[in-house]
Amino acid sequence: MSHALPAFAAQDLPTWKRAVLKVGSSLLAGEGEGLSPKHALNLAQFVSAQIAAGREVVIVSSGAVAAGRGILHRQPAAGVAMAERQALAALGQAPLIALWQRFFDRPVAQVLLTHDDLRNRRRYLNARATLQALLNLNAVPVINENDTVSVDELKLGDNDNLAAVVAALVDADALFIATDIDGFYSANPRRHADAQPILDVEALTPEFYAMAGEAGSGVGTGGMRTKLEAAAKAAAAGIETFLFNGSRADTVAALGRGQLHGTRFRPAQNRMAARKYWLRNVPLEAGAILIDAGAAGAVRERGASLLPGGVLSAEGDFRRGDMIEIRQASDGNTIARGVSQYSAADVRRLARRHSRDIEGILGYSYGENIIHRDDLVVI
């Protein structure tokens, strides 16, 4: 396949403020073994330019296993045991982070996650709070699958799907997937000379999945199908996905100018609508927070967060991260539902108190809100 010119015509990128950039192993692995800065440099320059322009970028980076191979100076045998792959990942995490740090004049923070961290609501909230704090500190979070302890997760293309979940976790506007192919084609362009570029995908139907091939390189673990799965997950959260060739310096440079040479996957609905839909449909836990009329008005009419000062009491035995009802104490009516930052026992202790007193009362603080407005929907 010729690379004289980009195979995908330029498209203008929509405006975005926060994005997740997923970088595959094939872009970071050296031609022999270990890691190479060849393509990472261009991608890091793109990230730096976006941060300088006032945007925020979280990186989801593969490459730990490849880096581990480089340390041992050997290739694993076919059908290598999971334990050895996990050992290679453990060896490779430090050089992977070191690779990224060399390109930035700001701190790079390593964050290791498993899908269990993101399925469990309490760990989900902790992960989100940590990532938000890192962005507030002007650090560059570099996330990878915690391959060393995961069991089922170290499978085909997991970091593609992990990137989509992280994009929803941090309320990103966009998911950029950097790979070693120009975009999504009607067939595998390495095998089919007549494969046609697909620039814009409104909705991922079974026909698109049928076009997706298997893994394209021997270094990474994912193929085009996992890219589509990631785009579908992001779309469900109201996030657009942009697939592009991270090995092409001209394509990466064009991104910095607001132009995509690749494939755009559109969400079915906007980000806020998708989140509100999720909040309305997550199963409720047994329990509720009772609030006064002033707090009820602030939540219902002004879209405010729920602060401890407006809380009268809590019912049930819910835990931090549970979806619960918010009721007005005077009439018992449910006015909203949301994800509580604190357990029922903590809420009872914090009732009628000021946010600044939370840490003094509990000995710790998960933030000034009992329920943040982004985790709350009015009924």
Secondary structure: number of strands: 17
- Rg (CA only): 23 Å
If classified by CATH, what would the architecture of the largest domain be?
Answer: 3-Layer(aba) Sandwich
CATH topology term of the largest domain: Carbamate kinase
Unreliable stretches: 1-6, 153-157, 215-222
Measured as a percent range, the helix fraction is 25-40%
Find the CATH superfamily of the largest domain. Answer: Acetylglutamate kinase-like
Major beta sheet, specifics? 8 strands, mixed
Shape: globular
Mean pLDDT: 87
Oligomer: single chain
- CATH C-level class of the largest domain: Alpha Beta
Q: Between the first and last Cα atoms, what is the distance in angstroms?
A: 54 Å
Percentage beta strand: 15-25%
List keywords for this structure.
2 domains; 379 residues; Archaeosine Trna-guanine Transglycosylase, Chain: A, domain 4; 20% strand; five-stranded mixed sheet; eight-stranded mixed sheet; 14 helices; Carbamate kinase; alpha/beta
